[in-house]
Amino acid sequence: MKIGIDAMGGDHAPLEAVKGCLLARKLYPGITPVLFGQKDKIKEAFAQLNSDPAAFEIIHASEMIDMGEHATKAIAHKKNSSINIGYKYLSEKKIDAFIGAGNTGAMLVGAMFSVKAIDGVQRPTITSVLPKLNGEMGVLVDVGANADCKPEVLNQFATLGSLYAQHVYGIRNPKVALLSIGEEKEKGNLLIQAASPMLEMNDRINFVGNVEGRDLFSDKADVVVCDGYTGNIVLKLCEAWCYNLKKQGVENEFLDRFDFTQYGGTPILGVNETVIIGHGISKEQTFTNMFKMAQDVVNSQLIDKIKMSF
Known about the structure:
about 300 residues
């Protein structure tokens, strides 16, 4: 399986991206990394690691999109960027998946411009893992791709998140809930109140009603749905909470399961090809796990299952 990587994306690229490629090929023989980026800098990274770049396919990209650049403008004007060329290969099916830890907005916009949204999907979305106190895993959707949402978009997020939880994480008949300020139907803002009846009528999901913030780590729901503005705040709060507890010397298996390096990244749910977005501070292990996540998504045939549902 050929998996492309934006070797220039992330705060520690290309060195850590190259490390991730080397480790992924060692751990997962079925994965063939294809690197996109400035060839001279990528080869320098291989030299620092005393590794032979000739063993890898490296596609030269003269430009790179920086973290702070405007996503749409960068995708439109930097045609020779590692992200754009990677997406070109993906759209032409020269690679089976594409991963990157660079500019998240550019990865999202690039996906929409190249491989495009699946017919019927209004807004592709991204997710985060929600570790449960019982040892299981859950999914939070959306976590930043769509700050403002309409009720019907939340309904689609519910379907996308449910399919992802079922086919990638192996959760049977996942319980889906809306994140609100109370369990009662009448609680919540206008968005939640309008979305709730739509999810109730959605026969493609197992809707269990509203959950509150205190329920995120319980077994009340496997998939928690919210707009990207709310979801991103929840995600960053969880990250800060874990970081500060660990900084104070707290050691706990539950806290360890919030470590993003374990999961690699999140797929963009709702586009026609497999794309994985990673954290900007990704290092070797995170990149390696991004490769594994991409392999799992491709092998699960998730995209075909999403297409059948829309």
